[in-house]
Specification:
By secondary structure, the protein is α+β, with helices and mostly antiparallel strands. It has one domain: q2cbj1_9rhob like domain (Jelly Rolls, Sandwich), CATH 2.60.120. Helices cover 26% and strands 16% of the residues. The chain contains ten helices and eleven strands. Strands 2, 3, 4, 5, 6, 9 and 11 form a seven-stranded antiparallel beta sheet that branches. Strands 1-8-7-10 form a four-stranded mixed beta sheet. Helix 2 runs antiparallel to helix 4. It is globular and about 55 Å long.
Length: 294
């Protein structure tokens, strides 16, 4: 179930291909990225570290009244308030040691250094998300949100909780990284510079019907990761379970190339982020798509 649409696993939506056997072979991984638009790496992060990060996040949710009373915090059962908890700017949570032990680990940085063949860096912003029932994202290219600076940048979505197909897993629009018209129109926008809507669509059926994409996903375990570039369209499915789905998005690039300055600490110890044009009107995606003819 994705919004009002029902997809049948193995037909309209297929299982992501696991590339974890190639984890020490950057050449083969880059080949898979070019061909498929993503890398799915089971067990990329140490599972115990991922579980500690989950426990840390659930404790923060519990402190904020997000867990069902009388339940064990480790079960992550959502309270009746059903609040999402995006901890992006809550530095004591998103930058807590259990979180950074996962996404800033020596193993993680060593992997990206092998991929890029040089020292790497990551953004100061960490997109730590805790999705309640019904919570999900919408289909987009990362380029629209964080495409400034080098294009030589990889995003990593990491599952911190066991995430079944009905628990809000990442969904990739397979083939979207090769759709030249989408890339040269929608993919070329900068939401903050151009004051344009950043979400391409909330309708997964449209991507299958009108663009010919197949949707790809998988059930995830803590520490599993999916890696992709700036022009792979993706979303997350709605969380239909009664437990929080916790994940974190991080970005990696060569340290000697220009970052997107919106997501790096400034002198005040904060980052600018998106949507900083206070009071601005953003052109709706429906108008943009009419202009582009897509």
């Amino acid at each position: 179930m994705f919004g009002d649409e029902v997809f049948h696993f193995g037909d309209d939506i297929v299982e992501l291909k696991d590339s974890s056997n190639d984890i020490d072979n950057p050449e083969r991984l880059w080949s898979s990225l070019r061909e498929d638009g993503y890398l799915y790496l089971r067990g990329f992060h140490d599972r115990e570290l991922a579980k500690k990060a989950t426990h840390w996040t659930l404790h923060a949710i519990d402190e904020r009244g997000g867990l069902a009373p009388g339940t064990d915090a480790s079960d992550g059962i959502i309270s009746e308030a059903n609040h999402n908890f995006p901890f992006f700017r809550v530095l004591p949570v998103a930058h807590g040691k259990p979180i950074l032990d996962v996404v800033d680990s020596e193993a993680t940085f060593s992997f990206y250094q092998r991929m890029f063949g040089k020292p790497v860096m990551t953004f100061d912003k960490r997109w730590l998300r805790s999705m309640a029932k019904g919570g999900h994202n919408h289909f987009h290219y990362d380029s629209v949100y964080l495409g400034r600076g080098t294009q030589n940048r990889l995003s990593m979505w990491t599952a911190l909780t066991s995430t079944a197909l009905d628990g809000g897993p990442l969904v990739v629009a397979l083939g979207s990284h090769e759709h030249e018209r989408l890339i040269e129109t929608y993919g070329a926008t900068d939401m903050d510079r151009d004051l344009t809507d950043a979400v391409f669509t909330s309708d997964p059926r449209e991507l299958v019907r009108d663009f010919g994409f197949t949707l790809g996903t998988a059930p995830f375990e803590p520490g599993d990761a999916v890696i992709f570039g700036l022009y792979t369209m993706h979303s997350t499915a709605p969380n239909l379970s009664d437990r929080y789905r916790i994940s974190i998005d991080t970005r990696y690039q060569p340290a000697d190339e220009e970052p997107d300055e919106r997501f790096m600490f400034r002198d005040n110890g904060r980052w600018l982020g998106n949507f900083y044009n206070e009071g601005a009107e953003y052109t709706p995606m429906s108008e943009l798509r009419a202009w582009w003819g897509i």
